[in-house]
Amino acid sequence: MKRFLESPYVVEMVRNIAAMYAHGWDERNGGNISMLLTEQEVSDYVEPASVLRTIPTGFTEPFLEGRYFLVTGTGKYFRNVPYDPADGLGLIRMTDAGRRAELLWGFSDGGRFTSEMPAHMMSHAARLRADSDNRIVMHCHPDNLLAMTYVHDLDERAFTRTLWQMETECIVVFPEGVGVLPWMLCGTNEIGVATAEKMRSRRLVIWAQHGIYGAGRDLDEAFGLIETAEKAAGIYMKIAHLPLRQTITDEGLHQLEERFGVKAREGYLD
Q1: CA separation for the pair 205, 181 (Å, rounded)
Q2: What's residue 269's pLDDT?
Q3: What does the angle CA 75 – CA 77 – CA 82 come to, to the nearest 5 degrees?
Q4: How far is CA 190 from the centre of its chain?
Q5: Residues 182-233 pLDDT 10s
Q6: How far is the C-alpha of 227 from the C-alpha of 143, rounded, in Å?
Q7: Hey, which residues are catalytic here?
Q8: Which CATH homologous superfamily contains domain 116-262?
Q9: CATH second-level architecture of 1-114?
């Protein structure tokens, strides 16, 4: 049987973790990723019946029963994961209606999954109901999006419109807009439920004064969503204190809808 450490799932996860750290999005142990895998993908590398140990999750999500996830570990520094993936990552199977996770590989130092597990798993469930091909939930702390939550109205329509107006690509990349939550205590079921509710109709959810959640069909999509929103937020933070002479108009945004075959969130354009 091939080693899971050498699987494309671990290789791609490590590659994206390194890129996120290089971008400055995941200082210290800030940030986490979870990747949904099928039993067929997993069984090529590990024996599904060989459970190393069982870890309580602290929440319930029956929709994820029996599903497999590769997840980052709690307290793990992203800069160290490429040097020892089996310590910083774990392969788990959800069981007991989501109340427990069976560890099949990883967390070699006796650790456990990210403290943001409720938000990850509840978001996976919400996105899978909207898009059965969704596989990734990614959380990080991009500087400019974080800064923007201190100075910009947190109304979701206003926040989304500002991002759309900063860069031509934004409405094409995330036409459904972004969800925004006010500051909440992290690592709780409450913030998990609130994030999942937003994820039902969006792939980006901003946690004010904390960071962002992105979801996608693969790591490139989730990473690209966050990268695009962060670039737009960076432009905004550079010009927010200056008099605005021109911007992308709603007419221009409608033209982008037509040109790229996307539909802006209902009611977000005049």
Answers
A1: 7
A2: 97
A3: 130
A4: 17
A5: 999 999 999 999 999 999 999 999 999 999 999 999 999 999 999 999 999 9
A6: 11
A7: 116
A8: Class II aldolase/adducin N-terminal domain (3.40.225.10)
A9: 3-Layer(aba) Sandwich (3.40)
